[in-house]
Amino acid sequence: MSQYVIAIDQGTTSSRAIVFDHDGNIVSSGQKEHEQIFPKAGWVEHDAVEIWDNTREVIGTALSKANLTRHDIVAVGITNQRETAVVWDKTTGKPVYNAIVWQDTRTQSIVDELAADGGVERFKQKVGLPLATYFSGTKIKWILDNVDGAREKAEAGDLIFGNTDSWVTWNLTGGTDGGVHITDVTNASRTMFMDLETLSWDDDILAAFGVPRSMMPAIKSSSEVYGTVHTSQLLREVPVAGILGDQQAATFGQAAFEKGGAKNTYGTGNFLIVNTGEEIVHSKNGLLTTVCYRLGDAKPVYALEGSIAVTGSLIQWLRDNLGLISSAPEVEKLARTVEDNGGVYIVPAFSGLFAPYWKGDARGVMVGLTRFANKGHIARAALEATAFQTREVLDAANADAGVDMEDLRVDGGMVANDALMQFQADILGIPVIRPKVTETTALGAAYAAGLAVGFWKDTEELAKNWSEDKRWEPNMDADERDRQLRLWKKAVTKSMDWVDADVR
Fold this sequence. Notes:
Layout: E1 4-10, E2 14-20, E3 26-33, E4 45-46, H1 48-65, E5 73-80, E6 85-89, E7 99-100, H2 108-115, H3 124-127, H4 136-146, H5 150-155, E8 159-163, H6 164-172, E9 182-184, H7 185-188, E10 194-195, E11 200-201, H8 203-209, E12 218-220, E13 223-228, E14 239-245, H9 246-253, E15 262-266, E16 270-277, E17 288-293, E18 301-308, H10 312-320, H11 330-335, E19 345-347, E20 365-367, H12 375-401, E21 408-411, H13 418-428, E22 432-435, H14 440-452, H15 459-463, E23 468-472, H16 478-495
Parallel strand pairs: 1-5, 5-14, 9-12, 15-21, 21-22
Antiparallel strand pairs: 1-2, 2-3, 4-7, 6-8, 10-11, 13-14, 15-16, 16-18, 17-18, 19-20, 22-23
């Protein structure tokens, strides 16, 4: 009987379940989008109950498409949108508020309050992260401070927190009937509460945020058996054995196991991760220090990360907010109607600027407009914004590493866009390489789970599964590249210092 691993990929816009075979190939999948909730400008929420309902549905879809049952599945891996915070009542299983999404900027006043004593890098040496609205910690504090009765319930030990990996795992393993309340080191490293050295919650930082330790999940490795699926679920009694935050999962799926290995994922946002091995490297150029993965009892592997808030979601904005296109793939066709961007640059600082600037007071701008500009130029500028932002974080990574990358492995939904990938190679000046299996986020979670149960022997076996599908070579003249980068950087300055006391 053939055996498989199933990965649950709980992402920012949808939840998916993908079944993989031993060679790392996709056997079947199920996917369902969930609602994006925008109560106010800068606020982004999800309904955690809807996410769990969708997760159960896509598991069923993936199994039925391949005519599989739980007996064919050896392990479940989970990957997730990181930093999206869920706080729920462990006795009822109900969230006390919608999940606050990583893109949400409502907690800027909390960031400012905490930064008043020590600046935005107050905790960075210990946790690898600057104070920013991006991370889970300020979101938990906001819920406790603003939801009626939440702080009292939390202090009584009734409320628990998790990124969506914890929420899915808790429900999958039983919820109120013995659900396992855990997270892995990669997700824990995105809360602002985990000490990178000890891999444990830091009581002083929790106290500074006013978050009871009793709310926090137990921190586990990225690859071990955490428990089994509850008997009420389709996958009952199958081991839940791997958890990785989505960007670390993509790095794992790209087989970037060696120090210096790197990948860039093109999704709702863009995320460049560089493996730094067992060494904690503190960036001097605006990158984050994070945990890349930990396998069982082995030493943790660390990484530097360049996080970009808005790339794929800019294309969604063109579709949903402006009605410029009716589907995301149409953006490439529209962009190809013009020869260049016509002097138009879009800086999509919808959630402020992330790496390498970390400017929470920035907001999105479109500059260089003339009567010549048309919707083709806007579509092209939207695609190019993704490539320009990637160039800036790659430059930061090269500066921290002291050696330039020779090529870039890419994955995620936007890598199907040839126009974008060619411009990316042009603006980087190095080849861009796409693997045959581009669903590397789900694949990484499957790999972590499969390793834990012996389905795969070791990372060397996993590395043999990776193969190249396509590469784009740079063909832009160096002077033109420099000119475009100069104008891009000028455009970025126009987005800064927008939010003040009267602008929200």
